[in-house]
Amino acid sequence: MSRFLDDYFDQGYNDDNPMPVDVLISIMQDMKNRQEGNALPDTIGAEYYFLQDFITLDMDCDFPYIEKDFLKHCSDKLPEFLKYTRNIDLDARYNENISVALQKKILYVIYGGAQSGDVYCRELLKYLFKIYHRNLYRTLKRFRTISMDEILGLSDEKEENSQLGVVGMVLIMCPLMGITFSDEVSVLYFYLIKKMEDWKREEYIEREFPEDGLFEECMKTVDAWMDDEKLSSKNKYGKKYYADERFAEECMNYFNYPGDFPFTSLENFMGLRIEMTRTLMTLKMNHPKKEYTYEQIQHLTMIYTLCSTIADIADRFDMETDYLLSKYDFDYDDDEDSLFDPKKIEVYKEKEKTEPEVLKTKASSTPVSSETEENENEYLKEIARLRSSLDEKDREIKRLRDAYSEAKASRREAEEMVHRYESEREELIACGDGMNDISMIEYAGLGAAMENAYPPVKEMEAAIKGKKIAIIGGHVNWHNKLKQQFPGWRFVLSEASKTVDGKMLEGCEKVYFYTDHMSHVIYGKFIAAVRERKIPFGYLGSIHIESVIKQVYEDLCGE
To answer: Does residue 145 come out as left (phi exceeding 0), alpha (psi in the -120 to 50 range) or beta?
Structure first.
């Protein structure tokens, strides 16, 4: 560690041996902090490196027991503990794997509990430090006050941890062990912040966006491949991709998972054509001069799909973990769509009755603090409140930035698709006499129907109004429009998979899936329910109300 500070107190710096920039910046920040009369520098850098190296291989094996005991003692205190933590990028995408991300999140909550003054959390951290970092713990026990030179000497001695990790642990654990710091140690806080920021800049992955027109260009290529394959042999349509899919299913079965698990775990699958287009576009973004065959793209599309699944699972895991750890606050009163209301649980009513007695007991058993202690506690609470508020703003900014990136990419894809298909549509002319020709006529710029064409839309609507139909998937606004014309039909939003089950399909004459706005989760759930009940089903390819009417009429009333 002395390498990165290069004998801070040594006067050996000269023209041939200049002071490192990182060290100089840290010293200047420390001097400024002292001049402004601030007590301690920000500890976020120390917290970051403490979290990186505190969990050893032995602790990793024992962590289920650690988290179980922690939650047993402190599950009701998590929101309070989180006020003493910040946003340090602990999600799976910033760590080695999902398990490590979870462990670091729980460890950081334990740290927050220790900072809040919780006795169990303080003793738990000291105990973990004692048994999993035995040598470092024994060395630190010798100190009552520790200097920067002594801290740097400790870091040089340890091979099992990174030097920065050891410094971070020392800065975090010493206050818990009653060890004070010499004044010059404050420089180390600034140094760790600087190294953390540098590391994050190096590791940050900024999503690249394709050039204008690239998505459209790739889709034209994919369309040409797929159309050519359909002309040559319908039986071979996408055969390479589906061969890979079958192998993926066999692999999942080998690991004792359902074969379709990778595909039902996808949040948004828009069909093989779009997946191939996105695969080709990703390749062109990274290797613009390289050419690919249709067979290669089919193979690589399966890899793209599996990578999408991994990302979706990790994102979902992070989200659910944050919910369980109370990282996000919910205001049920402001959520009009939520059916769940915790106030209506009977146990809450009982708790409200007994709460005054509990408060009375607490008040009588709490010792009177001195004015100094009260002021100090208020000061610490205000710091925690401000940090929590700042962290919440950071999370909101990050969430909005990610949402903007996704929306920007989706909008670009949609605009290119619309532009392409509108251009093709204007050049087409179609005619027909049957229901199977309607979609063609509607799509074409010009269309004509023969004498034996199907009845007007109003007659078709009247004929199917009394039919028992279920629509799975699609946007809520589209559902509402259909409900106005067909109040007897049943509708399931893609987001409602957890609140609706397959029993609602009983008695239906036919079930339709709108897969362009549907997750694999809900599709897998309801396709199983349909097959179990042997209900006829089909797929809707358009949100145009007339097209829906015509398709349902053809299926149920057509000859």
So the answer is: beta
